[in-house]
Amino acid sequence: MDFDFIKQYTPLYVEAALLTLNITVKGVLLSILLGLICSLVRYFKIPVLNRITVIYIELSRNTPLLIQLFFLYFGLPKLGIMLSSEACAIIGLVFLGGSYMAEAFRSGLDSISDIQKESGLSIGLTNLQVFRYIILPQAISVSIPAFSANVIFLFKETSVFSAVALADLMFVAKDLIGLYYKTDEALLMLVTAYCIILLPISAVFRIIERKLRYAGFGN
Fold first, then answer.
1. d(CA 139, CA 217)
2. In whole angstroms, what separates CA 206 from the centre of its chain?
């Protein structure tokens, strides 16, 4: 193991990790927003939009992110639409992540029994108040495990961004292997970088899940 090589090229991994984090944070936040909108459309069964949402979710969940990126980066220019590598990465992550977040939120909403809605209405709350104060908080609590799994899944999916010439962690690792044939060192730094980022995220979500267990009655 060449530790001098690791020391020399660690700054490249740091820079790539910051880029990956930047894209992931933007992609995840927009995925949450899109997923919440889609889940509400499906929960309330809004005409027309419900069918469009179902088609989007099925299309997104059943096509690889790599294919979606190829369409954005290589396909859209044929139509006169030019996007940067970073824009393609964010859009691709949102397109994929939105469907998974939608299903996570929808499973939480569907888990709330009708009796709770009826109980809220019986004490004088409006439908909006019942949804805001009774259904939504419990649905979010139930969705946390799936939500946290989706966040980690989306971060790991960023490893394919190198296919559209984005200098992320995987791009740097492959570049160093191709230039210097330092496979062990490059992969060690790659795994270490992912662990440094993902392990704290996983730990934070475990704490949140424990605190919010049973809709606020955690332990």
1. 14
2. 17
pLDDT in tens, 41-83: 998 888 899 999 999 999 999 989 889 999 999 988 888 888 8
Distance of CA 209 to the CA centre of its chain: 17
The predicted-structure confidence for 192-213, as pLDDT tens digits, reads as follows: 999 998 999 889 888 888 777 6
Domains of the chain, CATH where assigned: 3-216 (1.10.3720.10)
Residue type, 15: E
Distance of CA 85 to the CA centre of its chain: 18
3-state secondary structure 43-80: HHCCCCHHHHHHHHHHHHHCCCHHHHHHHHHHHHHHHC
172-180: list long-range contacts, CB under 8 Å, 24+ apart. 172/9, 172/12, 172/13, 172/16, 176/9, 176/12, 180/5
